[in-house]
Amino acid sequence: MSVTAAKGFTAAGIAAGIKENGNPDLALVVNNGPRRAAAGVFTSNRVKAAPVLWSEQVLKGGAVTAVVLNSGGANACTGPQGFQDTHATAEKAAEVLDGHSAGEVAVASTGLIGVTLPMDKLLPGLEKAAAELSAHGGEKAAIAIKTTDTVHKTSVVTRGGWTVGGMAKGAGMLAPGLATMLVVLTTDADLDAPVLDRALREATRTTFDRVDSDGCMSTNDTVLLLASGASEVTPGYAEFAEAVRTVCDDLARQLIGDAEGASKDIRIEVVNAASEADAVEVGRSIARNNLLKCAIHGEDPNWGRVLSAIGTTGAAFEPDRLNVAINGVWVCRNGSFGEDRDLVDMRYREVRITADLAAGTAEPVVIWANDLTADYVHENSAYSS
Amino acid sequence: MSVTAAKGFTAAGIAAGIKENGNPDLALVVNNGPRRAAAGVFTSNRVKAAPVLWSEQVLKGGAVTAVVLNSGGANACTGPQGFQDTHATAEKAAEVLDGHSAGEVAVASTGLIGVTLPMDKLLPGLEKAAAELSAHGGEKAAIAIKTTDTVHKTSVVTRGGWTVGGMAKGAGMLAPGLATMLVVLTTDADLDAPVLDRALREATRTTFDRVDSDGCMSTNDTVLLLASGASEVTPGYAEFAEAVRTVCDDLARQLIGDAEGASKDIRIEVVNAASEADAVEVGRSIARNNLLKCAIHGEDPNWGRVLSAIGTTGAAFEPDRLNVAINGVWVCRNGSFGEDRDLVDMRYREVRITADLAAGTAEPVVIWANDLTADYVHENSAYSS
User: Fold this and answer.
1) Which InterPro entries would you find in this protein's record (chains A, B) (predicted)?
2) ipTM for the complex?
3) Rounded (5°) CA angle B310-B312-B316
């Protein structure tokens, strides 16, 4: 159901020929209203792709009527030509969707950095996509934005008379600065842009922003939330924010589950930190430790690598008060060895690490990561991506 | 020649039975004077091994008469028992070396984190090592501190009447906070502890501290510099500091050349930064980017991954002024594609990346790193280390 689960939206996904293998590579999502409110969050990487620079400007207006997304090329580090190509894409979309303004067309791209897009294929592709727009097109749109994703990712939550739906892509270069990868969320709730913006920022802060598959921040991260108002229902803020968060959490979890080369999904929970910021710093340091990621791949409960990662942070803690559990077994107590590590069962894909800083009363923070595998190395060394 | 190249030093390396495979695992280095001046730098990881905590105290006195080093166990995260074991090791060394004080015995350990050392083997081993002390024992000492190192690492520089020699171990968990791995340097120059300290800190700051094989900071990093004064020569500071730096640089380069699973040594040079700190931050960010490390392994000049790594830093730069060369080919100019990437020849082990920030006039900074390979994953997932 994806982005067309909410009333008021149509979508399409087609093969425009941007990818040399002929797979679908161009998606179009249109908000048919009556409202066209929107919010967006983007990568905090200072090297930003042309479509990110463009869409940041579009979102300042608080209105989006259409989103064009392509796989097969990131249009990042492509200079003035890249920005002109994004502009031309928005202009073309406005043209094929009668009555729209290019200034309300967001653009998102994903693929190899440093090459320009084949505009001679992308622009005709937009005409084809517009002709195929459908209230059942959400699934095809989700498929068209895949790169190294092995499955397409969609999620839908329906509450009293209104719906939040969404699609996501992302399998590598998957570590958020603010958000990561490409995500489009839609809702038929009748809400204005400032409310959408608040709900989206709150949701991404604790979902996409706490996914760290490989420590590499993208130049193209984009998460958009579009509201059509077509349900004619205006939900209360808390209920709406919870629904957005649920969809974001579901999509973020799907991203980790399909990360390049991964054999394990690692749930890192940091408890009893002095502050939320400390907990996030510690969780992210653990998530990015290559030696630990290798050990998890080898089903080795190597808690010493967890401690060596915690030790590189500036978080408040005393080394001799740290505790670590792996899959519920407290293998490290008071900074030293605890329960027998042979008790840890690591056969399953999900591995749970709990780091107890014993330093305060902050709410627990969860960071999701993946293991480091020979398949990851192969996927990112055998060809350019 | 190693640590016994300088006059006034004896050393030994033996198999004490700490390693289950029977390989050499215990080294002893003794300064026979007449002077016993010393300096040391240690890991800035806040989770520090017991021998680091002990040796930091010893070095505050500015005098070291002997260094005990063991492989086969890091004695890190071992609680009060671990510290008692280090203390007992120093006491035993003082006992077997008549007339020495335990307070002048430095201890260094390397191996798996979180397990205590077999003291019933280590203490008798010290007696055996003391009996084998020799002015030709430097090579055996260097061999005894190996863990996953495939070769032992030594370096010697001789100037007018005096010498600086050294040995090093380190192949994984190889990213410095201040220094990394275990290193013992010796000199027969007649210098006091403050001069040694200054020369050692200056040397490590631009050598060991700019090696980043896998982004993982150790709990046991130790670099010691011992002076015997036996040459009866007091060199000028600049000449001595240059010799220390040369030995450190040589050993650091040997560490990168033998890093776990690596197939490439990556020399990352950051030029035209606004400050040295900016250059180091950018170089380290590039060095730690897993996607780039995979690309280099695949001999793919994927400069987009260099830019995405630079973009995550806080260094001064404008994205559209960045330039990147790989093995001398400027594949990225002004933040966009430059010379043809097919011109880049990456067949050899050494790969040179130049990142031009076009932001200032700071001196170039060089960071050494390795690629990320399936062999690295295997070596760090197939068994505990």
Assistant:
1) Arg_biosynth_ArgJ, ArgJ-like_dom_sf, ArgJ_beta_C
2) 0.80
3) 65
Which residues from A are below 8 Å from B79, CB to CB?
A: 320, 334-337
Q: How far apart are CA B329 and CA A348, in angstroms?
A: 46
A43 is in an annotated binding site: no
Residues B333-338 have a mean pLDDT of 91
Beta bridge partners of A63: A37
Q: Write down the pTM of the prediction.
A: 0.82
**Residue A190 DSSP one-character state:** -
Single out the residue of B95, B106, B123 nearest to residue B31, CA to CA: B106
Active site members of B: 180
Tell me if the domain spanning B265-379 has CATH number 3.40.50.2300: no
The token pair at B355 is 């990142």
Best of B290, B331, B384, B385 to disrupt the A interface (most A CBs within 10 Å) is: B290
Binding residues of B for substrate: 147, 169, 180, 260, 380, 385
Q: Where exactly are the structural domains of chain A?
A: 2-257, 265-379
Task: Determine the distance from the C-alpha atom of residue B20 to the mean position of all C-alpha atoms in its chain, rounded to a whole number.
Answer: 25
pLDDT in tens, B185-229: 899 999 999 999 999 888 888 888 787 777 777 777 888 898 998
Chain B environment of A295 (Cβ under 8 Å):
380-381, 384
Residue A169 among known ligand-binding residues? yes
Q: pLDDT value at position B308? A: 86
CA–CA gap between residue B325 and residue B91 (Å, rounded): 54
B218 contacts chain A (CB < 8 A): yes
Tokens coding A344? 């840890």
B175: nearest CA in chain A? A312
Q: Is A180 annotated as a binding residue?
A: yes
% of chain A with per-residue pLDDT over 90: 64
Q: Are B384 and B112 in contact (CB under 8 A)?
A: yes
User: What H or E segment, with its residue span, contains residue B271?
Assistant: strand B265-271
Q: What's the pLDDT at B175? A: 63
Task: List A residues 239-298 in contact with B (Cβ-Cβ < 8 A).
Answer: 288-291, 294-295, 297-298
- Closest-CA residue of chain B to A294: B381
Report pLDDT for B178: 46
Query: A147-203 pLDDT, tens per residue?
Result: 888 889 899 999 888 999 998 887 776 665 544 578 888 999 999 999 999 998 888
> With the C-alpha atoms ordered B121, B122, B124, B128, is the resulting torsion angle positive or negative?
positive
Determine contact, residues A139/A152, Cβ cutoff 8 Å.
yes
Residues of A annotated catalytic, as ranges: 180
A-contacting residues in B 130-169 (Cβ below 8 Å): none
State whether residue A308 sits within 8 Å of chain B by CB. Answer: yes
pLDDT at A207 over 90: no
For residue B342, the distance in angstroms to the closest alpha carbon of chain A comes to 13
- Residues A38-85 have pLDDT tens digits of 998 888 788 889 999 999 999 999 999 999 999 999 998 898 999 999
Domain A2-257 coded CATH 3.60.70.12: yes
Per-residue pLDDT tens digits for B17-43: 999 999 999 999 999 999 999 998 888
- What is the distance in angstroms between the Cα of A291 and the nearest Cα belonging to chain B? 6
